[in-house]
Design brief:
The chain is of the alpha/beta class. Helices cover 37% and strands 19% of the residues. Bound molecules: S-adenosylmethionine (SAM).
């Protein structure tokens, strides 16, 4: 079995396990009005940190509806997660479910690798600046002598785990399809000013940050 197949099987197993643990659970009260979606190892105090494993409450984000009741979250933050979901089959349905669980006036803050920045970076310097920025943050290291444009490839597919990248127009379409409005480009700094409890990722150079609102 290839290394890639083992990776996929392992992640599918985690998704299956999370699905089984949530089965039959609906309308739950959340311990926090703030939802941190796809937290990974970054558990943020005061937030309900969810992911497929090792979180406050393990879920498969593609297994909807999520178990919490309607109108229960005031803020939702998700960093570097939506690119792991299929746009039409998984992300738009997830955004609709987040809309259901968001209180009116709730804020949704998302970020992911920026489609526009990746394409511009290739045209400008084959991705060298993006790659150098990633190296300062401990990102992937390309094998000695490999042309740097492979870093752009990696942003797009990341060993098969990335499904789509987004620019402002595409993400706004997805958010508005789900009912959100006032979609605007923001920066990581603005997100950290709003929620100072989040540790910085310092990934503005390659990422797009967007904020949207559930209309009142
Ligand atoms: C690149 S990591 C980002 C983690 C964290 N948000 C951060 O900023 O470092 C992507 C996260 O999305 C989670 N994820 C991807 N697909 C998922 C799914 N279908 N259900 C639950 N979590 C998922 C992964 O488990 C992983 O923790």
């Amino acid at each position: 079995m290839s290394e890639r197949t083992i990776l996929y099987l392992r992640f599918d197993w985690l998704r299956f396990r999370a699905r089984c643990s949530v089965r039959g659970r609906r309308g739950l009260e959340s311990p926090s009005k703030k939802l941190h979606l796809g937290c990974g190892s970054r558990h943020v105090n005061g937030w309900l940190n969810i992911d497929v494993r090792g979180s406050d409450f393990d879920v498969d984000l593609a297994n909807l509806p999520l178990p919490w009741k309607d109108d229960c979250f005031e803020s939702v933050v998700s960093q570097q997660v939506i690119e792991h979901l299929d746009l039409r089959l998984e992300l738009v349905p997830l955004l609709r479910d987040l809309f259901r669980m968001a209180k009116s006036g709730a804020e949704l803050w998302l970020c992911c690798p920026d489609l526009e920045k990746a394409c511009r970076a290739y045209a400008v310097d084959h991705g060298l600046t993006l790659y150098q920025d990633a190296l300062t943050r401990g990102g992937i290291v390309l094998p000695e002598g490999m042309p740097v444009q492979h870093y752009i490839n990696d942003l797009f597919h990341q060993d098969g785990s990335h499904k789509n990248l987004y620019d402002l127009e595409l993400m706004t379409w997805a958010l508005e399809s789900a009912g959100f409005s006032n979609c605007e480009r923001v920066t990581e700094g603005e997100m950290l000013n709003r929620f100072s409890e989040f540790p910085p990722r310092r990934d503005d150079v390659q990422s797009i940050y967007i904020r949207a609102i559930k209309p009142k």
